[in-house]
Every structure is written in structure tokens, then in C-alpha cells.
Write a structure and sequence with these properties.
Elements: H1 9-28, H2 32-49
Helix pairs in contact: 1-2
Length: about 70
């Protein structure tokens, strides 16, 4: 997949930082509803970064960071 060429380098960097922040949060959050919110935010960032329409199934591995209870 290619990054959307309509995005500026600053926008790409901001989206990348947001995705990494979501990954870090998923490693720390325990509550399922909070994790669901972070998943949705991360999914939205990926869709914007790669210009994926909502109707299209996303061919990205959405494997989450491990849940804090099971990561150890």
C-alpha cells in the first residue's frame, strides 16, 4: 500500500505519530471499551494515511498490541 500523495510530509508524520501512540496505549489499556476506542482511532488514521474509503475492506493486518493481562 502506498501513502496518499495528497498528504503533506507533516501530515504523514503526524498520522504516523498518532498510530504509534495508539500502539503504546494498547499495550497499557485494560478496559475493553477503551481499547475499542483506540482501535477505532488507529483504524481511522490508517484509512486517512492510505486513502482507504470506508466501503473498502482494509487489507492491513490489524493485529493489536497484546492486552496487558496476557502480554506477560
Amino acid at each position: 500500500m502506498k501513502i496518499d500523495p495528497a498528504l503533506s510530509p507533516e501530515q504523514v508524520a503526524a498520522l504516523s505519530r498518532e498510530i504509534l501512540l495508539c500502539q503504546r496505549l494498547l499495550r497499557k489499556l485494560w478496559a475493553d471499551d477503551s481499547r475499542r476506542d483506540v482501535f477505532a482511532r488507529r483504524r481511522s488514521c490508517y484509512r486517512i494515511l492510505y486513502a482507504i474509503p470506508l466501503e473498502v475492506p482494509v487489507p492491513i493486518d490489524w493485529e493489536p498490541a497484546p492486552h496487558p493481562q496476557t502480554s506477560r
